Amino acid sequence: MSPPLLKLGAVLSTMAMISNWMSQTLPSLVGLNTTRITTSDTLTQISPKEGWQVYSSAQDPDGRCICTVVAPEQNLCSRDAKSRQLRQLLEKVQNMSQSIEVLNLRTQRDFQYVLKMETQMKGLKAKFRQIEDDRKTLMTKHFQELKEKMDELLPLIPVLEQYKTDAKLITQFKEEIRNLSTVLTGIQEEIGAYDYEELHQRVVNLETRLRDCMKKLTCGKLMKITGPITVKISGTRFGAWMTDPLASEKNNRVWYMDSYTNNKIVREYKSIADFISGAESRTYNLPFKWAGTNHVVYNGSLYFNKYQSNIIIKYSFDTGRVLAQRSLEYAGFHNVYPYTWGGFSDIDLMADEIGLWAVYATNQNAGNIVISQLNQDTLEVLKSWSTGYPKRSAGESFMICGTLYVTNSHLTGAKVYYSYSTKTSTYEYTDIPFHNQYFHISMLDYNARDRALYAWNNGHQVLFNVTLFHVIKTEDDT
Predict the structure, then answer these.
(1) Strand partners, 306
(2) Where in this chain does the entry annotate a coiled-coil region (predicted)?
């Protein structure tokens, strides 16, 4: 094949590769294909998050701001990822636009060469016709040479037409890329001029300001209970599960204690996700059996009622030793003053924003509930409050911000019926319903870090969300 044909063949081969590349690559860049970017699903789990939203606000007669703050799930800023994807897409489009420009210049150069060839071919065709008209005047040899050249050039005419079409297509692609770049640039400007790091820093600053604001919140009053959210189904009808309210944000260990008696095994899981999957990390064999289901983990230690006694045990998970034990004076035990469901639930240990508590009943208080604040190190009773609510008529109870909330039953239709404030030494009857989904609650405890109620509901480990009414401190408050 002659040099012009070789060069044209190379151009056509280049065009074929360009067309194939454009058909495969460009749609994915400009969003014309059906491929979608997906995000990986995280393991379904329940992990209460910190964070508040203002539910409502008003001003009391003294001029103080009164707000209802709800603690919702904390969501990631999905807009940051979209902004980053948008920048990456814009960079790819700009790089492609530059490549198209180089290709266009090369194409125009080769196109001019082919057009020149087309002119030569037309001239040869005219000469050939002239020779055909007067072939007798030329030698047969010259005629044959011209005939062969013409035969070589004639098949290139339809290829030339296709080449013109491809050149137009490249020009069209170039224009579309230019338009897309303009649109993406406009969208980016509309989103904002902040890059990812700057946006991330703004979010961090906002979270810091929010936490500073939350520190000004006084302890709240329970207004509403929602849920439950079922975390897992395991164990017997009765048991306890809990996390440490004083643990760091990165420490999400879960402890699991099945049954209300005749057991000394505590199972530990590194996270809610491991708890759900059953990936146990450690097992503790307590030195004593426990009574009831009303244990609590607080500041790295387990507090529980020793079986067949009114003795409280403090057990360290780190050392595996008993750090303290003390008899709770006059407290009834071994089903003398249990909750309505029984199960040796005479002594209920719990923790809230203020500290460690014990809820029980005594003969001296006619079987009514007694609330005692405990020293977490020595288990010494710091102060006690005697209520008028019969312990055997209570379904369960829990402390929030120094106020004891008591349910009227452990069965279907239960509600928070009574509350007693240790701050004011006053009580009131309440009517706060909650959904007893599995018909039998044997453990209900508040976690101040998660701001949620942990419950054991007939072999189901569930969580309830709580809504609290808060009063924001002002600079004038003492």
Answers:
(1) 290
(2) 79-141, 170-216
Structure confidence at residue 163 as a pLDDT band (50, 70, 90): low
Q: Would the pLDDT of 371 be above 90?
A: yes
pLDDT category at 118 given cuts 50, 70, 90 is confident
Amino acid found at 227: G
Give the other-Cβ count within 10 Å of 152's Cβ: 13
Give the model's pLDDT for residue 43: 35
Token representation of residue 196 = 């990812």
pTM above 0.70, yes or no: no
Helix (H, G, I), strand (E, B) or coil at 122: helix
Q: Is the pLDDT of residue 20 over 70?
A: no
Show the beta-strand stretches assigned E in 263-329: 265-269, 280-285, 296-298, 301-305, 311-316, 322-327
Cα–Cα distance, 127 to 138 (Å, whole number): 12
Contact of 419 with 222, CB cutoff 8 Å? yes
Nearest-CA neighbor of 118 among 166, 79, 153? 153
Per-residue pLDDT reduced to its tens digit, 425-458:
999 999 999 999 999 999 999 999 999 999 999 9
Measure the CA–CA gap between 167 and 160, rounded to whole angstroms: 10
Torsion on CA atoms 174, 179, 182, 183, rounded to nearest 10 = -140
Mean pLDDT of the chain: 80
- What would the CATH number be for the domain defined by 221-470? 2.40.128.630
Buried-state track 207-233, b at ≥16 Cβ within 10 A, e below 16: eeeeeeeeeeeebbbbebbebbeebbe
Write down the pLDDT at residue 76. 44
Specify the DSSP class assigned to residue 425.
T
Residues 6+ apart with CB under 8 A from 346: 291, 292, 305, 310, 331, 332, 333, 334, 335, 336, 337, 338, 360, 361, 391
Ordered by start, the domain boundaries in the chain are 221-470
SS3 content of the chain, % helix, strand, coil (to 5): 35, 30, 35
What are the angstrom distances between the C-alpha of 98 and each of 92, 134, 173, 177? 10, 55, 12, 10
DSSP 145-173: HHHHHHHHHTTHHHHHHHHHHHHHHHHHH
26: three-class secondary structure by DSSP: helix
pLDDT confidence of residue 285: 97
- Quick one: angle between helices 78-133 and 3-30, nearest 10? 150
What secondary structure letter does DSSP report for 61? T
* C-alpha separations of 4 from 64, 112, 116, 151, 261 in Å: 91, 13, 11, 14, 97
The pair of structure tokens assigned to 423 is 């701050």
pLDDT over threshold 60, residue 468:
yes
Checking if the pLDDT of 192 tops 90, the result is no
